[in-house]
Amino acid sequence: MKQLSRVQTAFLLTFLVILWGINWPLSKMALNYTPPLLFAGIRTVLGGLILLLFALPRLKKLRFKETWHFYFISAFFNIILFYGLQTLGLGYAPAGLFSAIVFVEPVLLGIFCWIWLGESMYGLKIIGLFLGFAGVAIISASGFTGDISAIGIILALGSAIGWGLGTVYVKKTGDRVDAIWMVTIQLLIGGIFLLGAGTGFESWSMIKWETPFIINLLFISTFVIAFGWLAFFTLVGSGEASKVGSFTFLIPLIAILCSSFLLHESITLNLVVGLLFIVVSIMFVNMKLKSKTIPDSSV
């Protein structure tokens, strides 16, 4: 893939961070019209179908008979666990707070890369990991006073763990599969599974196919999931993965600000202090990763 210009890089990074930030309050708003599992399945399948239009010209790179197991494992971590637990968890927590906990994922990624990819664990990274967990603890402390339930915290952490494991797996198998086909197939596989689970435990008749929900669904499926992942892999393919990782910390900040504006969610002192810890921790971890030129796909 050809190198992107600075203007193109800045545009795609801005697009990615803003869209993945606003996704959280929009998803919580959508849950007023639909059960969570069905919503998670519908939006990921739609996103996969849209992205399929970009993947089909690369059909020769699919090699499904040889690589099908990579897609299924990636779909389990990145879609079924990440999106599934995320959508369920938004029903138990404010969107901004929930996203702040989920976006400790780059910190968890440092631990997973150390365990499974043999990456070194050194001073700056250890400090960053400590600050990250401290931030989650500070944010979560308010959860036991009624603002957020314990199950909301557990689902948020489960979503972050699934995403982190999925990212490590994609890193480990990245040279064996085509990037665009990887995200397309994992969206379709994971989305179909979530639709099946939703059909078994929820009722399609509970979905209110009203105009606000349809617009919200189409926006998330098209821009957040399909074009968001396409922008991400465009940046990764042009050598910009480390920049994507270093800008990840802006996503929960945007989510919190958008949730405050759209959902009138309060911004508590615990949330601000905890988020500050997480921001600093992610910056510390990414600083060292960047200096060693190790790509980071933690978004």
Task: Explain the overall architecture.
The structure is a single chain. The chain is mainly alpha-helical and 299 residues long. 76% of the residues lie in helices and 0% in strands. The radius of gyration is 18 Å and the shape is globular. Mean pLDDT is 83; it is low at 289-299.
Outline the secondary-structure elements.
Blueprint: H1 6-30, H2 36-55, H3 64-89, H4 95-102, H5 105-116, H6 123-141, H7 150-173, H8 179-201, H9 211-237, H10 241-246, H11 250-262, H12 269-291
Helix pairs in contact: 1-4, 1-9, 1-11, 2-3, 2-8, 2-9, 3-7, 3-8, 4-7, 4-11, 5-6, 5-7, 6-12, 8-9
The helix tally amounts to 12
* Main sheet attributes: strand count, strand direction, barrel closure: none
- How many angstroms separate the termini? 20 Å
Q: How many strand elements?
A: 0
**C-alpha geometry:** globular
What helical percentage do the residues reach? Answer: over 70%
How large is the share of residues in beta strands?
Answer: under 5%
Radius of gyration: 18 Å
Q: What structural category arises from helix and sheet content?
A: mainly alpha
Pick out the low-confidence regions. Answer: 289-299
Order of helices and strands: HHHHHHHHHHHH
The average pLDDT value, as a whole number, equals 83
